[in-house]
Amino acid sequence: MAYFSDTESSTSNSVESGTLDLTIDGGNSTVTFFTETSIAPGDSGQATLPVGNAGSLTGYVDVSVADLRNYENAIVGNESSADSTGGDPGQGNGELQDNLEVNAYFLNGGGGNEVYLGANQYETIGTAFATGTDYDVSHQISGGGSDTFVIDWQLPSGTGREAQSDSVELDLTFELGQNTGQ
Amino acid sequence: MSSLDAVRRVLLVVLVVGALGAAGPSMSLGLFVDSHQGSGSFTASEYGGGGGGGGPTAEAAGPYEVFEDSSVQLDGTGSTSQGAMDSYSWVILSGPGSLSANTTSTPTFNAPTDVQSDTSVTVELTVNNKGQSDTDQATITVKDAGSGNQPPAARYTSSRSGNSPNAELDASTSSDTDGSITSYEWYIGQSDTSGTADYTGVSIKGKISAGTTVTLAVTDNDGATDTETKQIS
Question: Which of A2, A147, B16, B152 would suit a FRET pair with B166, their CA atoms being 20 to 30 Å apart?
Answer without folding.
Answer: B152
